[in-house]
Amino acid sequence: MEILNQLQGSREVELTVHDSTSEDVDLGADARLVRIAKVLKARLLTNDYALSQVARLQRVAVLNLSDLTRALRPTVVAGDEIDLHLVKEGRESHQAVGYLPDATMIVVNHARAHVGKTRTVVVASALQTTAGRLIFAEFKTAPRKRRFRANRFEALSQVHFALRHCRSCEESAKAARHRPTAFAA
Fold first, then answer.
1. Strand 132-139 relative to strand 105-108, pairing
2. Least packed by Cβ within 10 Å: which of 38, 58, 131, 154?
3. CA nearest 117: which of 139, 81, 86?
4. Each residue of 120-139: pLDDT tens digit?
Protein backbone atom coordinates (compact mmCIF):
# COMPACT_ATOMS: atom_id res chain seq x y z
CA MET A 1 0.00 0.00 0.00
CA GLU A 2 2.90 2.33 0.76
CA ILE A 3 4.26 1.93 -2.78
CA LEU A 4 0.79 2.60 -4.25
CA ASN A 5 0.55 5.78 -2.18
CA GLN A 6 3.96 6.89 -3.46
CA LEU A 7 2.94 6.15 -7.06
CA GLN A 8 -0.31 8.09 -6.63
CA GLY A 9 1.65 11.08 -5.39
CA SER A 10 4.11 10.93 -8.30
CA ARG A 11 3.71 13.37 -11.16
CA GLU A 12 5.49 11.03 -13.61
CA VAL A 13 3.08 8.10 -13.17
CA GLU A 14 -0.63 8.12 -13.90
CA LEU A 15 -2.21 5.68 -11.44
CA THR A 16 -5.84 4.65 -11.41
CA VAL A 17 -7.33 2.14 -8.96
CA HIS A 18 -10.06 -0.05 -10.45
CA ASP A 19 -12.57 -1.91 -8.30
CA SER A 20 -13.32 -5.56 -9.06
CA THR A 21 -16.72 -6.47 -10.41
CA SER A 22 -18.90 -9.27 -9.10
CA GLU A 23 -17.91 -11.46 -12.06
CA ASP A 24 -14.23 -11.22 -11.02
CA VAL A 25 -14.85 -12.83 -7.61
CA ASP A 26 -14.45 -16.39 -8.92
CA LEU A 27 -11.18 -15.60 -10.72
CA GLY A 28 -7.72 -15.94 -9.20
CA ALA A 29 -5.41 -12.95 -8.84
CA ASP A 30 -3.48 -13.70 -12.05
CA ALA A 31 -6.65 -14.09 -14.11
CA ARG A 32 -8.05 -10.83 -12.71
CA LEU A 33 -4.84 -8.96 -13.55
CA VAL A 34 -4.82 -10.32 -17.10
CA ARG A 35 -8.53 -9.57 -17.52
CA ILE A 36 -8.24 -5.96 -16.35
CA ALA A 37 -5.12 -5.39 -18.47
CA LYS A 38 -7.04 -6.73 -21.47
CA VAL A 39 -10.10 -4.55 -20.75
CA LEU A 40 -7.96 -1.43 -20.25
CA LYS A 41 -5.70 -2.31 -23.20
CA ALA A 42 -2.82 -1.90 -20.76
CA ARG A 43 0.57 -3.55 -20.63
CA LEU A 44 1.34 -5.86 -17.75
CA LEU A 45 4.65 -5.51 -15.90
CA THR A 46 5.52 -8.41 -13.58
CA ASN A 47 8.26 -10.59 -12.17
CA ASP A 48 5.94 -13.62 -12.00
CA TYR A 49 6.83 -16.10 -14.76
CA ALA A 50 3.47 -17.92 -14.61
CA LEU A 51 1.54 -14.64 -14.85
CA SER A 52 3.58 -13.53 -17.85
CA GLN A 53 2.86 -16.87 -19.60
CA VAL A 54 -0.88 -16.57 -18.91
CA ALA A 55 -0.86 -12.98 -20.21
CA ARG A 56 0.97 -14.00 -23.40
CA LEU A 57 -1.57 -16.77 -24.01
CA GLN A 58 -4.34 -14.18 -23.63
CA ARG A 59 -2.48 -11.85 -26.05
CA VAL A 60 -1.93 -9.19 -23.39
CA ALA A 61 1.27 -7.18 -23.81
CA VAL A 62 3.53 -8.19 -20.92
CA LEU A 63 7.07 -7.47 -19.84
CA ASN A 64 8.60 -9.86 -17.33
CA LEU A 65 11.20 -8.04 -15.22
CA SER A 66 13.32 -11.20 -15.04
CA ASP A 67 13.47 -11.29 -18.85
CA LEU A 68 14.45 -7.62 -18.88
CA THR A 69 17.16 -8.28 -16.29
CA ARG A 70 18.59 -11.08 -18.42
CA ALA A 71 18.49 -8.86 -21.52
CA LEU A 72 20.35 -6.09 -19.70
CA ARG A 73 22.97 -8.36 -18.16
CA PRO A 74 26.37 -7.41 -19.54
CA THR A 75 27.75 -9.98 -21.94
CA VAL A 76 31.18 -10.98 -20.73
CA VAL A 77 33.14 -13.66 -22.59
CA ALA A 78 36.58 -15.19 -22.24
CA GLY A 79 39.22 -12.72 -23.38
CA ASP A 80 37.30 -9.56 -22.40
CA GLU A 81 39.25 -6.95 -20.45
CA ILE A 82 37.55 -5.33 -17.47
CA ASP A 83 38.64 -2.51 -15.19
CA LEU A 84 37.53 -4.08 -11.94
CA HIS A 85 37.55 -2.76 -8.38
CA LEU A 86 38.66 -5.62 -6.12
CA VAL A 87 36.57 -5.38 -2.96
CA LYS A 88 37.41 -8.41 -0.83
CA GLU A 89 39.55 -11.49 -0.45
CA GLY A 90 38.51 -14.66 -2.25
CA ARG A 91 38.04 -18.17 -0.87
CA GLU A 92 41.55 -19.29 -1.84
CA SER A 93 44.61 -17.58 -0.36
CA HIS A 94 45.61 -15.96 -3.69
CA GLN A 95 42.18 -14.75 -4.87
CA ALA A 96 40.39 -11.41 -4.76
CA VAL A 97 36.78 -10.65 -5.65
CA GLY A 98 35.15 -7.81 -7.57
CA TYR A 99 31.65 -7.26 -8.96
CA LEU A 100 30.13 -6.13 -12.25
CA PRO A 101 27.41 -3.42 -12.10
CA ASP A 102 24.74 -6.18 -12.26
CA ALA A 103 26.28 -7.79 -9.10
CA THR A 104 27.93 -10.65 -10.99
CA MET A 105 30.90 -11.87 -8.96
CA ILE A 106 34.32 -11.99 -10.58
CA VAL A 107 37.04 -14.02 -8.89
CA VAL A 108 40.55 -12.89 -9.84
CA ASN A 109 43.49 -15.25 -9.34
CA HIS A 110 46.73 -13.97 -7.78
CA ALA A 111 45.08 -10.68 -6.79
CA ARG A 112 44.74 -10.80 -3.01
CA ALA A 113 47.46 -8.17 -2.57
CA HIS A 114 45.41 -5.78 -4.74
CA VAL A 115 42.19 -5.73 -2.64
CA GLY A 116 40.87 -2.16 -2.45
CA LYS A 117 42.37 -1.21 -5.83
CA THR A 118 41.05 -1.12 -9.40
CA ARG A 119 42.95 -3.34 -11.83
CA THR A 120 42.57 -4.43 -15.45
CA VAL A 121 41.73 -8.13 -15.60
CA VAL A 122 41.08 -10.55 -18.46
CA VAL A 123 38.10 -12.90 -18.25
CA ALA A 124 39.27 -16.54 -18.28
CA SER A 125 35.94 -18.37 -17.93
CA ALA A 126 32.36 -18.10 -16.70
CA LEU A 127 30.26 -20.54 -14.73
CA GLN A 128 26.48 -20.51 -14.29
CA THR A 129 25.49 -21.44 -10.74
CA THR A 130 22.15 -21.61 -8.97
CA ALA A 131 23.00 -18.26 -7.37
CA GLY A 132 23.87 -16.63 -10.72
CA ARG A 133 26.95 -16.25 -12.89
CA LEU A 134 30.44 -16.62 -11.51
CA ILE A 135 33.30 -15.29 -13.62
CA PHE A 136 36.98 -16.15 -13.25
CA ALA A 137 39.68 -13.74 -14.39
CA GLU A 138 43.43 -13.19 -14.40
CA PHE A 139 45.51 -10.03 -14.40
CA LYS A 140 46.06 -8.64 -17.86
CA THR A 141 49.20 -10.10 -19.45
CA ALA A 142 48.12 -10.80 -23.04
CA PRO A 143 47.69 -8.28 -25.90
CA ARG A 144 44.54 -6.19 -25.76
CA LYS A 145 41.30 -8.02 -26.61
CA ARG A 146 37.69 -6.86 -26.74
CA ARG A 147 37.21 -4.10 -24.17
CA PHE A 148 34.20 -4.29 -21.82
CA ARG A 149 32.90 -1.06 -20.38
CA ALA A 150 29.74 -0.80 -18.36
CA ASN A 151 28.52 2.74 -18.80
CA ARG A 152 25.19 4.46 -18.71
CA PHE A 153 24.93 4.92 -22.48
CA GLU A 154 25.51 1.20 -23.11
CA ALA A 155 22.95 0.25 -20.46
CA LEU A 156 20.37 2.60 -21.98
CA SER A 157 21.08 1.17 -25.44
CA GLN A 158 20.50 -2.33 -24.07
CA VAL A 159 17.21 -1.26 -22.44
CA HIS A 160 16.08 0.32 -25.70
CA PHE A 161 17.01 -2.83 -27.62
CA ALA A 162 15.27 -5.12 -25.11
CA LEU A 163 12.08 -3.07 -25.15
CA ARG A 164 11.99 -2.77 -28.95
CA HIS A 165 12.59 -6.47 -29.46
CA CYS A 166 10.42 -7.89 -26.70
CA ARG A 167 8.59 -10.71 -28.53
CA SER A 168 5.30 -10.21 -26.77
CA CYS A 169 5.32 -6.43 -27.27
CA GLU A 170 6.86 -6.21 -30.73
CA GLU A 171 3.59 -6.13 -32.69
CA SER A 172 2.04 -3.53 -30.43
CA ALA A 173 5.09 -1.32 -29.86
CA LYS A 174 3.75 1.64 -31.82
CA ALA A 175 0.24 1.47 -30.42
CA ALA A 176 1.46 0.73 -26.89
CA ARG A 177 3.41 3.94 -26.38
CA HIS A 178 0.48 5.80 -24.88
CA ARG A 179 -1.39 2.95 -23.22
CA PRO A 180 -1.53 2.64 -19.43
CA THR A 181 0.62 0.04 -17.67
CA ALA A 182 -0.72 -2.40 -15.07
CA PHE A 183 1.74 -3.42 -12.37
CA ALA A 184 1.91 -6.75 -10.54
CA ALA A 185 4.31 -7.86 -7.82
1. parallel
2. 131
3. 86
4. 999 999 888 787 788 999 98
Q: Does 65 share its domain with 87?
A: no
- Minimal CA–CA distance to 184: which of 26, 31, 67, 40? 31
Burial bucket for residue 71 (CB in 10 Å: 0-12, 13-18, 19+): middle
Domain holding 166, by residue range, is 2-71+160-183
Question: Same domain for 9 and 49?
Answer: yes
| End-to-end alpha carbon distance in the chain | 12
In the sheet with 43-46, reading across from the earlier edge strand, the strands are 62-64, 43-46, 181-183
Helix boundaries (H) for the chain: 2-9, 29-40, 49-57, 65-72, 152-164, 167-170, 173-176
Claim: this prediction has a pTM higher than 0.70: no
66-93 average pLDDT score = 86
Same-domain pairing of 47 and 104:
no
Cβ atoms of 94 and 111 within 8 Å: the answer is yes
CATH number for the domain spanning 134: value is 2.40.50
| Co-location of 20 and 53 in the same domain | yes
